[in-house]
Amino acid sequence: MTIPTPAVQDRSRRIIAIDVARGIALLAMASYHFTWDLEFFGYTDPGLTAFGWWKFYARCIASTFLFLVGVSLFLAHGKQIRWNGFWKRFAMVGGAALAISAATRLATPDSFIFFGILHEIALASLLGLPALLTLVVAAFVITAPLYLRSEIFDHPALWWVGLSATNPRSNDYVPLFPWFGAVLAGIAAAKLAFASGMLTRLAGLTPGRWTNPLVFIGRHSLAFY
C-alpha cells in the first residue's frame, strides 16, 4: 500500500475558496446574460452589452472562468492524470457545448454559438493536460491576436483558432487565441501556489456559512450554466 505524501494530501483536499470564486463568477455571468437577454428581446438599447463597461465585464467573467479551469486542472491532474474522471468531465462539457451549438443554430442561425465558453473549456482541458506550460506561454497566447492575425484563418473551419483578420459573428465567441492563455495562467498560478505552500493555506480556510450557496453553485457550475 502506498502512503500519500503530505504534499499530495494537501493538494487533493477540496479548496472551498475556489468553489466560492467560481460561484461568484457564475452569479456575475448570470447578471451579464440577464442584461444580454433584455437587449436581445428589445428591452434595452441595441448594442448595450457589446461595448464599453459591459464588454469589459464580460471579458473579466470569461477570463475568471478560464483561469479557474486552469487552476482546477492542476489540482485534479497535476500529480497524475485521473483519466476516468477527466474523460467523464470532458464528455459532460463537450456534450453541453455541442448541445448549445445545435440549439443556437436553430434559434439564431446568423449568430449561432460555434465556439463559445464551453467549447473553449473542453479544448483547453485537453491542451492543458501536460501542465508544463508557463506564464510566458500564457502571455504569448494572450497577445498572439495582436500580431498573428491573418486572412488565412478567415475560413469558417479555422474560426475556432481566433486569429482571423475579422472576428466572425457569434453570440458567444471564445476562440483558442487569446482565451487559452487564461487557462494557462491558471495552471501556472496553481503551480506557483503549490510550490509556495499557498494551496495548503487555502485548503485550511473555513469560510462562513454565508458562502454555502456560492460553494454549492461553484461545485455544480455546469448545471448552473
Number of helices: 10
Query: In angstroms, what is the radius of gyration?
Result: 18 Å
- The whole-number mean of residue pLDDT values reads 88
Described by the principal axes of the CA atoms, the overall outline is globular
The N- and C-terminal alpha carbons lie at a distance of 40 Å
Secondary-structure element pattern, one letter each = HHHHHHHHHH
Kindly estimate the percentage of residues that lie in beta strands according to DSSP. under 5%
Label the structural class. mainly alpha
Total number of β-strand segments?
Answer: 0
Notable traits:
225 residues, mainly alpha, 10 helices, 65% helix
Explain this structure to me?
- There is one protein chain.
- With 225 residues, this protein is mainly α.
- The chain has one domain (16-203).
- It is built from ten helices and no strands.
- Helix 2 (16-40) crosses helix 9, helix 3 (52-77) crosses helix 7 (176-196) and helix 5 packs across helix 7.
- The termini are far apart.
TL;DR?
With 225 residues, this protein is mainly α. It has 10 helices and no strands.
List the helices and strands and how they pair.
Layout: H1 6-12, H2 16-40, H3 52-77, H4 83-107, H5 117-127, H6 135-147, H7 176-196, H8 198-203, H9 212-219, H10 221-224
Helix pairs in contact: 2-3, 2-9, 3-5, 3-7, 4-5, 5-7, 6-7
